[in-house]
# Entry
Amino acid sequence: MSRSTGPAEALPGRRHRETVARLGALALGWPALWLGALALELAAGGVVFWLAGRHGPALLAVAVNLAVCCRFLVTLRRGSVPLITRYARSDEAGLPRECESYTRALTGIWAGVLLLFAVAHAAPMLDLSTTGQVSVAQSVILTALFLAEHPLRSRLFPQIGRATPLRTLRAMWMSVGARHAG
# Structure
């Protein structure tokens, strides 16, 4: 015996199909929204470069350095976990209690160095140097700071094992993955 479906019984199936259709449109819409936001950001960046003229690259370098500096600084607030502490907690050796003040200080050092480079990148706007010169100096100094910190950490905290750049990058990657998974 076949049962006829009346309007009341067909409604849940129709709602389900409408919901699936909306979710499908939303799934297709996110890439479009992302691309639209990217295009808007690129257009805004182009306008800033046009308005800034020859100082556009220096202005961009100042902005990027300030943004990254703030990323480090915001984690130094009371009650927050410093950025490098968060990374170190994701290391295979973990983070012994005695290392936490070190990672807090290191987070502050990185914030300070990035702030100094934000200021240094303003020098080309005053015709005191070129953006290229400051960028090369920044690349050399930040790389040296990153690499030199590893033997220091290994010496100060032998209980955590040998610190290497690869191990640090792995811990950073794991920290980001753990943060987005939870």
Observations:
- DSSP finds six helices and no strands in the chain.
